[in-house]
Amino acid sequence: MVVCFLLRFIFPPPPSFFITAMSMISLISSAKLGFSEVRGENLQYSKFWNVNPRKSGRKQIKLSSRTGMLFAYTPAFLAGLASLVFFTHQNARFLLLASALTLHFFKRIFEVLFVHKYSGGTVLDSAISISLGYFVSTASIIYAQTLTQGISEPPVDLKYPGILLFLIGISGNFYHHYLLSKLRGEGEREYRIPNGGLFELVICPHYLFEIMGFLGVSFISQTSYAFSFTLGTIFYLMGRSYATRRWYLSKFEDFSEDVKALIPYVF
Predict the structure, then answer these.
(1) Is residue 3, in this structure, part of any structural domain at all?
(2) DSSP run (H or E) holding 123
(3) Does residue 248 sit in helix, strand or coil?
(4) SS percent in the chain: helix, strand, coil, step 5
(5) Residue 73, Cα to own-chain centre: how many angstroms?
(6) Residue pair 166/213 in contact by the 8 Å Cβ criterion
(7) Alpha helices by DSSP H, 60-158
């Protein structure tokens, strides 16, 4: 009964052990990272780059934030771009999906180069984890979409609502990143409490809009892998936003308890 209901909205899972395994790995690994953030075991970038550094027998290599983030996002951008160049005989849904993924990571690279202002750094291990995760996930979403060629479309077509949701998500995410960049003047490095936009209600509206963007990607794709990846992303960003709110509460006495982590008035 549940399977029949789901198949109204997604393509049948492909007979691919790789995609089936990657769906589970993507969901479980992202959810695990989210729970680690809640426990205080943060990926070491942005404000958490030197919080609770991991103890190991080797010296950690630290990168500038700009270098670390470029390293994290560029491979996924190239994967999306390559799919547009080399998979030229795919249908409209594939082209929309590949375009959305390419645009998403192009925007991230653009922000790294021209919008974000930095005060910390990035540990190489974290940059590698993020880069590998985004690259493998992007390539897997694209590959899963190629496996739907020749298969009947789901009865409920979500790609056009997906385009709208993606555009709202990417625009809202960019706008709130822009607001964050305006908190510091030239040469200033200290953190301040964000304001404007949805920052009056949640401390991580940029994560909320990022989730909306990836939901849009899932709606465009309508594959089980895309939805698994997005669900894992939601778990991770919930954990990251919770840790971010806790950090602001610990650093600023005037941080309002009414400001939630991710979802206005709820969480």
Answers:
(1) no
(2) strand 121-123
(3) helix
(4) 65, 5, 35
(5) 10
(6) yes
(7) 65-86, 92-114, 124-146
Alpha helices in 115-223 (DSSP H): 124-146, 159-181, 205-221
pLDDT at 125: 82
Give tens-digit pLDDT for 25-46.
Answer: 999 999 999 999 999 887 766 6
**In the block, which residue shows the tokens 């209901």?**
5
* Domain membership of residue 225 as a residue range: 15-251
What residues are paired with 64 via a beta bridge?
A: 121
- Pairing outcome for strands 45-46 and 62-64: unpaired
Predicted confidence (pLDDT) per residue in 197-250, tens digit: 999 999 999 999 999 999 999 999 999 999 999 999 999 999 999 999 999 999
Q: Which pair of tokens denotes residue 11?
A: 């393509």
Q: Provide the pLDDT for residue 206.
A: 98
Cβ proximity of 14 and 222 under 8 Å: no
The answer as to whether 10 is a domain residue is: no
Among candidates 102, 123, 141, 113, which has minimal Cα distance to 44? Answer: 123
262 in a structural domain? no
Asked, for residue 222, whether it belongs to a domain, the answer is yes
Q: The pTM is what?
A: 0.93
Name the strands in the sheet holding 62-64, side by side, starting at the edge strand that comes first in the sequence: 45-46, 121-123, 62-64
Number of structural domains in the chain: 1
